[in-house]
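Please study the protein below:
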Amino acid sequence: MQNQLLILGIDSIVPPMLKQLVAAGRLPNFRRAFAEGYSSDVIPTFPPWTPPGWATVGTGAWPSTHGIEGFTLHFPGEPLDLEHPPFHSHLCRAEYLWEAAARAGRRAIVVKFPGTWPPRSAGVVQVGGAGGYARDINPNDISHAACYTTRGDLPGAIRVSLEPATSWEEPPPSHLPPLETIFVVAPCRAGRPRLYHGLIYAAAGAAYDRLLVARRRHAREALTILAPGAWSRWLEDEFALREGAVTGVFRLKLLELAPDGSGLQLFMTQNHPKEGYTQPPELAAELNAAVGPFAENISIRHRLRGWIDDATLLELWEEHTAWLERTILHLGRTHAWDLLCTQWHPIDFILHGFSGGIDPQHPDYDPLREPYYRELIARTHVLADRLVGCAFELMEDHPGLLVGIMGDHGHGFHRQTVHLNNLLVHHGLLHVEPVPQEGRFRVDWSKSRAYAMSACHIFLNVKGREPEGIVEPGGEYEELRQRISTLLKDLRDPAAGRPIVDAVFRREEMRPWGLYGDGVGDLIYCLHDGYDSGAIARSLVAGDPGVTEDLALLRPTRLLQGFTGEHPAFLPYEEHLRTSLLIVGAGVRRGYARRIPIQMVDIAPTLAYLAGLPLPAQAEGSILTDVSLNHGGMAILGTNNA
C-alpha cells in the first residue's frame, strides 16, 4: 500500500513540557494529534544534538554510520583542535528517506531540513537546508544578520555615529537639524561592501522620530523610512560578489532612536539570495511570488547579544513560521508529491535562551519573572502548533495522508559551564601558550597528552594516530584513560556539593549508541543536569582550545547573556532529554500512547514502511509494529544491514 507522507520536524520537543501545554489548552492541534494518532517518547542520538539527530531522523542510521557525530566534526589526520561544521550534505554518508523515494521513482519535496544542502538527488524538489542554526554559518548568506548601533557594549555589533547631515538632496521637512550615518553591509563571501546612507530627522515635533535609509544621499530614493519599533518591508538590492552581482533580500527594524538624537539601534536580518536556494532553480521565483522571501537564520543569538528585544525575537519567529505555513500549503496543494518533509527550530532557541528564567536553581532566577518566561516559551510552542494545524489542513486535501511529527532531542538546564580543558591544563595533561594578539591560547602538542573537544569527547594525543602524537598505544594509553576517567568521576561542584559528571565511557563502550567512528573520543562523558561543556564554547577557528585565562573549572551562566538551557552533554535516556513522535493518518492506532520509548533510528524505517516507501539504504532501525491498527499482521523487518 502506498500513502502520501508528511514529515514535520520540530526541534527540541520536550515531552513533559509539550503534554503540560496540551493539558492547559494552549496547543489544540497537538491535542488532536495525540487523540487521533500514535505517540511515543523517543530516546535521541548520543550526543542528543541537532545535526546527528536530524540526520538520524532522515536516514534511520546511527551517528557513526551517517557520519554526523556532533555539532562539529573531527577528521582523522587533522589536529585535534581543528573541527568542521557538519551541515554540508555531502558529509552525510547515508541515504535519506527522500533520496530512497526518488530512487524508486516516487516524488519527494524537502523544505529547510538541516544539513541537506546542496541536494544530492536530482529527483528531489528542495528548498534550503543549508543550516543557519548556530554561529551564523549559513553558506548561502550574502551577509549575516547585523546590528548597527551607537552603543559600544553589544557583542559583534557594528558601531555607527550620528553627525550633522550634509549634502542631502531634497531632504524631508524636519523640526530639528537632520543627522546622518552610514551603514556598511559587508558580505560574508568574497565581494565588495555595500553602503547605505541613513538620515535621522524629526517629522512630527521637537524629537527625532524617523530614520530614512537610501543608497545615496537623496531622500526621494529612500529604500525605507522607519519610525522607532517599525519593520521595513522586504528590501531587495544587488550585491557585488566575486561570482558576480547577486540580488539579496532582507528587512530592517529600528529598535531604538533617541528623541535627542544621541543614540540609534538598527537590526538587519540575514541577507539571503533571492534565488539559488532551490532545486529546480526556477522554484525560487515561484516561491517568492506565492509565499514571499526565504529567511532561514532566526537565531536566539541575536537576542543574547542584545541586538534585538524579546518582542522582535517573537516577530522573527512568527514571520518565519508564517512563511513555512504558506510554503507547506502551497507546495502541498500545487505540486505532485509522495513525501513532503520540513523542519522548524524556534523551540530549541527559546529553551537555550530562556530556560534560566524558569529554573529555580539558576543564579539569575526571579520568581516574579518566571510567569513571563513561561509565557514566552508557551507562545513559541503555539507557533509550532500552527504547523501541526497545517498538517491537518493537508490531510483534508489528501485522503490517506500519513503525518509524522517528531523532535530531535529534549532539553536540560545549564547553570554552570565546565571547562574541562582547563582541568587538563591543571593536571599537566594539556599544555597551552598564550597568543596575545588573538586573545586566545595555542596548544603545544609536543607536551600535550589529552584534549577535550565538542560536547562530550576527550581524545588522547596518540602516537601514530594524531599528527604530533606522544601517547604510546597500549599500556600508557590505557593508564591515561583510567587516570582521566577517575579525574572526571571525582569532580564535585564545591558550592552545590554534588558530582558534575554522571558517567564516563570508553570509546568501545559507545557502539550500542551508534558511535564507533573516527570522530569518537577515547573517553566520552555525560554531565549532570545543570552543567554543560566549555569545550563547545569556543569558535570553529583552528587552534582555539577553549582555555580561559583564569583556568577556572566552573563558570556560571547568565540569563539573556548566553545559553541557560542545553542538551548535548547529557544522558539521552533521561526524561527531559527525550523527545516525541506522533503519527496520525489512515490505519494508525487512535489515541495510542506507547509505554516504552523508541530509538530515533526507528522513525525513518517505520514511516517508510507505513507509506510504502523503500527503506533508506543504510537504515539500521526497526519498524515499530504497534503503530498500525493491523499491528498483529505487520512483519518485523529489522534492519537493512547487520
About this structure: The radius of gyration is 26 Å. The first helix runs from residue 15 to 23. The longest strand covers residues 194-201.
